[in-house]
Amino acid sequence: MKKTGNSIRFLLNDSLTEIDFTQNPGLKPTTTVLNYLRSMPFYKGVKEGCAEGDCGACTVVIAEKSGDRLVYKSIDSCLVFLPMLHGKQLLTVEHLADGEALHPVQKAMVDQNGSQCGYCTPGIVMSLFGLSKNHRDPSMEVVKDALTGNLCRCTGYRPIVDAAHVCCKGEDHDKFSENKDEVSGKLDELCRDKTPLSIISHQQRYLKPLTLTDALAFRKEFPSAVIVSGATDVALRQTKKKEFLPEMLDISDIAELKYFKEDNHTYSIGSGLHIEDLRHHADGKLPAMKHMLDIFGSLQIRNLATIGGNIGSASPIGDTLPLLIAYKASIKLQSHKNERFSSIEDFITGYRSIDLFPDELITEVQIPIPAIGRIIKSYKVSRRKDLDISTVSGGFSLLTENGTIKEIILAFGGMAAQPIRAFKTENFLTGKPWTEAVIVEAMEILFKEFKPWSDARAEVGYRNLVARNLLLKFYEESKGQVL
Ligand SMILES: Cc1cc2nc3c(=O)[nH]c(=O)nc-3n(C[C@H](O)[C@H](O)[C@H](O)COP(=O)(O)OP(=O)(O)OC[C@H]3O[C@@H](n4cnc5c(N)ncnc54)[C@H](O)[C@@H]3O)c2cc1C
Ligand code: FES
Ligand code: FES
C-alpha cells in the first residue's frame, strides 16, 4: 500500500494550509484543533472551557464535501485531532467579518444584545453561523437545538435566541455563499488523492486511511492502534486522562462507511454515519431511534459522533445500545479477508468490552424493519434533559396478538456493567394479557431483577425505581396501540 508522509492539508478559511508534523515540534497528531488554533496569535477567539465537549466555548465550523454538496457543521474543537481536518475547511469566529463589515450573525448578536461575556460568545456566534448556513427561518425547536451545546451562565439565552431568529431570516447571503463554488472546487482537489496518510511523529503513529480497503489493511498491520471514528469518546483519553496514545487508526473520513440504506426488510447503516445524520434518516422510519437521538449530546457532539463509535464504546449508558437490542439489530464486522455478523446482544460482552477480533472493524449496523403491530419505544432518564448522559435508559419492544403478549424485549442501560435485558420480567410477561394488573405484577419482578451500582448520578434504589416506572410508562404509552 502506498502511504503518504507526515503532512495533512486543509483550508484555514480560504488559505490552503499544510502541517508537516515532523517540521512542527509543537504539534502532534493528537493535538486538538482547539490547541492548534490557540497556539497561533490571531486565533484567540476560540476558548477552552471544559475540554470535554460540554460547554461549547471551543465551537468552530467545518465545511466539507458530501457528494456534490458543501455542508457546514458546528463542532467542538476540543474533541478533534488535527488530522481529522484533512480535506476540510476550518472556519473560526475570526473569519466571519468581511473586512470592517460584521457577518449577519455577528450583527444580529450585537443588535439583539446577545453578546455577553467574551468567553462563551465566540462559540455561540459559531453555533449560530452553523445554524444560519443550514436553516432559513428555523423553528424555536431548531434554534434551541443549535444552542444546546453552548453553555451561558450569565444573563440567559433570550437575546441570543432573538439573534438566531434575526440572522436566519431571508436569503442566506454572505461572503461564504458567494465563494461556495471556489471553496468546493478547492476541497474536491484536496480530497481527490485517496492515498492513506501515515504520520509518524513524537513517537506516535497516526494512520488515516481514506478507503475501507486501506483501513482494513492498516487494521491487520497495526492491530493495537486505537480506532478513532468521531473521537468524542477517544479524545477524552488524551485531553482528560492524559493518556499517551502511541498508535491511532483514524477512520473518520471513509465515505464508504457513511450511508443509510433500506430494502424491503432491513435498514442498513454505515458505522461511520454521524449521529446527527442518523437522526435525520430515522425521522419517520425509526421513531424510537429519532426520539433517542433528539436528546443525544448536543449538535456539536452529534456532528462528530458516529453510530459505530457508540457501539464500539460499549458503554453501559451508550444511548443507542438498549434500543438496538430492542430492534434486534445485528452488526457487520469486516476484516481484510472476511466478514461476519453478530447480534448486538452477543457483540457486547461486558463492561466496555466487545467481541471484535484484532483485525476487524465494525462496518455496518442492520436493523430489521419492524413488523406492523410491533411497538418499539425508547426512554432516557438523566439529570437534565439536554446534553447529559443517561442515568437509566430503556429500549422496549412489544408484539401482541389478540391482546396477549407474544414477544417482549425490555433492554436497559445504566442498570448493569453493560446494556442488559430484563429476562425474568420478559418471561413473566410473555403469554399474558397486556393489562395494567399484569404490568403492576411485572413491575415488582423488575424492581428486584437488577443489582445496579450507586454513583454520583444515582443510587441503587433510584435506578431500580426508574427501571420499574419506565415499564409502567411503556404500558401507558402503548395500551391504545396493541393488537
Ligand atoms: C459532551 C458529550 C456528550 C455525550 N453525550 C452522549 C449521549 O447523550 N449519549 C451517548 O450514548 N453518548 C454520549 N456521548 C459519548 C459519545 O459521544 C458516543 O459514545 C459516540 O457515539 C461515540 O462515537 P465516536 O464516533 O465519537 O467514537 P470514538 O470516540 O471515535 O470511538 C469510541 C470507541 O469505539 C471504537 N470504535 C469506533 N468506531 C469503530 C469501528 N468502526 N469499529 C470498531 N471500533 C470502533 C473506538 O476505538 C473507541 O473505543 C457523549 C460524549 C460527550 C463528549
Ligand atoms: S472546551 Fe468545552 S466543549 Fe470544548
Ligand atoms: S455569555 Fe458567557 S456566561 Fe453567558
Strand content: 15-25%
Give the overall shape: globular
Q: What is the terminal separation in angstroms?
A: 57 Å
Oligomer: single chain
What is the β-strand count? 20
Number of domains: 3
Average pLDDT, all residues: 96
Question: Might you state the CATH topology name of the largest domain?
Answer: Uridine Diphospho-n-acetylenolpyruvylglucosamine Reductase, domain 3
CATH class of the largest domain: Alpha Beta
**Rg (C-alpha, Å):** 23 Å
Task: Give the CATH architecture of the largest domain.
Answer: 2-Layer Sandwich
Ions, cofactors and other ligands present here are: flavin-adenine dinucleotide, FE2/S2 (inorganic) cluster
Provide a compact summary of the structure.
This protein has 483 residues and is of the alpha+beta class.
Provide the fold topology:
Layout: E1 7-12, E2 15-20, H1 33-38, E3 59-66, E4 69-76, E5 89-91, H2 104-111, H3 121-134, H4 140-147, H5 158-167, H6 175-178, H7 180-192, E6 197-201, E7 204-208, H8 212-221, E8 226-228, H9 234-239, E9 247-250, E10 260-262, E11 266-270, H10 275-282, H11 287-294, H12 299-302, H13 307-313, H14 320-326, E12 330-334, E13 339-343, H15 344-347, E14 348-350, E15 353-354, E16 361-368, E17 375-381, E18 392-401, E19 404-413, E20 420-421, H16 423-429, H17 436-449, H18 460-478
Parallel strand pairs: 1-5, 7-9, 8-9
Antiparallel strand pairs: 1-2, 3-4, 3-5, 6-7, 10-11, 11-16, 12-13, 12-16, 14-15, 17-18, 18-19, 19-20
Helix pairs in contact: 2-5, 3-4, 3-5, 10-11, 16-17, 17-18
The structure holds flavin-adenine dinucleotide and FE2/S2 (inorganic) cluster (FES) (2 copies).
Residues 48-51, 53-58, 76, 78 line the site of one FE2/S2 (inorganic) cluster.
